[in-house]
Amino acid sequence: MTIQPRTLKGQETQAKLLQTALDCFAAEGYKASSMRVIAARAGVSLSHAYYYFSSKEDIVARLLLNLRTEQFERCRSALDEGNTLESNIRAVFTSGLSVLQPYHEFGPAFLKVLLSQDQVDNELSAVEFSLWEKAVSGARPLPPLGIRSDLPKFLSLLSRQLFSVWAYDQSANQRRSLLLMDNAAPVAAKFAVLCRLPVVRSLFADVLALMDSGSSVQDHQDRQTTGSKVPKAS
């Protein structure tokens, strides 16, 4: 589990290790880039490197957290109050793809982080939820009151499902998953509007419970699975 450095020097060392690791992954491939190699290239002792990152997977987790935080900062101005819910959903999708696109090779590794139960995933969930909370609260008209508090969670779970498609999308420039996200925005927004009807609101609760339980089942399966490989970075 990654620690949070308390000093400026510690933060600089952690950032240097992260950047060095990414350079190694790009040049040598993920498998060949051991923690020993990363530490040596960063000019840090191996024990010191392990102090900041417990493993290569930990480095990938920190990268994803940094990218999601960058996405939040980029997207904040696009979620000004007054946009439609569809526009806000599309803005979150677009900003996420813009930030993550250079790291598509790490898609499966990112998914493994998202399915984990460690501190980094908790931090990721908090960033993602805050982003969707802002997208919902800033939408005009506001989504139906009956689903307003649960809608950020629904959109966050939907986003992760779409992200899993993007992570394994081998079409040119991930064209298929981009189209899927573009089409998902109006569908999700229309579904939210229809939740003003009691019968649809009940369906929303059922779908949310299904998505949430599906995520929990996948978490359990992932913890039972060993030997997963992270793809070689190009």
Question: How would you explain this protein's 3D organization?
Answer:
- The protein is mainly α and 234 residues long.
- The protein is 72% helix and 0% strand.
- It is built from eleven helices and no strands.
- α5 packs antiparallel against α10 (175-194).
- Residues 216-234 have low confidence and may be disordered.
Query: N-to-C terminal Cα separation, in Å?
Result: 26 Å
Strand content of the residues, in percent?
A: under 5%
Biggest sheet features: none
Helix percent reads: over 70%
Number of helices: 11
Overall, the morphology is elongated
Element string (H = helix, E = strand):
HHHHHHHHHHH
Mean pLDDT: 86
Say how many strands there are. Answer: 0
Structural class: mainly alpha
Whole-angstrom Rg? 19 Å
* pLDDT < 50 runs, ≥5 residues: 216-234
- Quaternary structure: single chain
Secondary structure: elements and pairs:
Blueprint lengths: L7 H21 L6 H8 L3 H7 L3 H21 L8 H16 L6 H8 L4 H19 L7 H4 L2 H17 L7 H20 L3 H27 L10
Summarize the structure.
This protein is mostly helical and 234 residues long.
Keywords:
about 230 residues, mainly alpha, 11 helices
